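Database export, one record per block. Field names are fixed; values are copied verbatim from the stored entry.
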Amino acid sequence: MTDSNDAFDRAPPRVSKSQLKRESAALEDLGNELIAVSRERLNHFDLSAELLEAVRQAQVITSHGALRRQRKFIAKLLRDIDPEPIREKLARLKNLSAQAIHEQHQIERWRDRLLNGDDQEINGFLETYPQADRQKLRQLVRDAHKEKLADLPPRSARLLYKCIREFLAIPQNDPQIVPE
């Protein structure tokens, strides 16, 4: 009797049908995320030629039924590889996007503070970022005020934004992920 128990103990654990469905759905979701990535950024993912081509085809398919079939096919291809590196790269891409948005908002807040404030705001900016050029900042703020009064396009406000971005020395790209 102990022989049959030993065989039972050595058998691999059985995966439930529900677990298999969850894993399949997770791979389909991963495939959908890959489809949403731009064609240029897809080149930076280490995908097999077949998977890369399947994703690119899915990006141009407009028929609902055909797209559904293509998504299932992508999920099938993902079952044959380790999806973790792809998940990690997608997470890094999402994190980079969130970080870029945060940095953009920071630059916009400084620009608005400089445009709506006085010399104290410029001094505050210079205290925080001593590498900034006081004269250039003051000139851009003055020009932006003149353009606003004359109902002209906000050229100087845009230049001020670019200037602030340079002074904050925010990196604009990651060598592994190319910006869109």
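Remark 1: Confidence is low (pLDDT under 50) at residues 170-180.
Remark 2: The two ends are 66 Å apart (CA to CA).
End of record.
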